[in-house]
Amino acid sequence: MKKGYIFIVLTALLYSTQEISNKMLMQNHLDIFQLNFIVSLIAAVLLTPSAIKDLKQKNMKIKGKDCGYFAINAALSIPISMSLLSLAGKYVQASTSAVIFSANAVFTVPFAYFLLKEKVNKKTLISLIISIIGVVIIFNPSKIIQGSEGGTDLIGIGLSLGAAIAWALFAVVSKMKIAKYGGYIFNCFVFYFGSIMLLAILIATGRPILSGINFQSILVLLYMGIFIKALGYIFYLGAIKLTSAVTASMVFLIKPALATILAVIILGEDIVPTMIIGIGFIIVGSYISFSAKKSEEKSEENIESTMVVELEREKL
């Protein structure tokens, strides 16, 4: 169990540098589709050995229907969500986009309700409302009304919000069949399909594929592909395996505050009072959502334990 919590902390630390890395690459004038193509391809290659191993163990063959499912998830998570998040780095601070993106777990609620028919309890609804209030506070409507700078902030926050919503939809759609494939197979194919889609966009629009990348950019791209995407996900899977899916979701409870602290240290960003208040609301909302899921998990465990006891009694 201790090792599981170490994995949670490591995952949160790596995931908290996502927006900071994006910001650094945006400052080097890298194309958003170009950087996401390279990062996704690196992650796909690194996950390939584990995916092949799982395919052999499951004796699974990937068919056309599987590829269609992977392609849908790839489109939502990489060309849409990750590209919107990268683009947001041009308009707002890394800390702002990181905090708003961390609210994606709350936005899964309506999608899960309509697509997976999951029930929405009172705690989940309260967490959704509190998190939305936090996002509105970060939007800082009074500043937006003031003029050009507020308008720029509005664009960046809107892009971050779009990235969070797209990722929330991806999280729900992926939940439909991820148990069938397992994490390594699913994510490896999603990264490959995402890379192919981005490569098609780069070629069709005449954007650079590898040109314009300096030494600093190479280091950041390698860091993102190896540590944030590949190792980050391996740690996250390890956390789920050693604790539970609900406990592992603590990653997104830690990330808002941690990403903000790292953005101040690494990028020297200034944190305004509205940002701190907004972060507080989002963390509280996420915690309520986490505690509600934890209660559900305990209830399910109790039901399973009761069923086991009843079966043992019947045997006697």
From TrEMBL:
Record localization? Membrane
Topological type in the membrane = Multi-pass membrane protein
Organism for this UniProt entry: Clostridium sardiniense
Protein name in the entry: DMT family transporter
Q: Which UniProt keywords apply?
A: Membrane, Transmembrane, Transmembrane helix
Domain of life from the UniProt record: Bacteria
Q: Which family does it belong to?
A: Belongs to the EamA transporter family.
The organism that produces this protein has a lineage beginning with: Bacteria, Bacillati, Bacillota, Clostridia, Eubacteriales
Task: List the Pfam families.
Answer: EamA
Q: Which residues form the EamA domain?
A: 3-139, 155-290
Chief location category: membrane
Does this entry carry the keyword Transferase? Answer: no
Residues annotated as transmembrane: 35-55, 67-88, 94-116, 125-142, 154-172, 184-206, 218-238, 245-265, 271-290
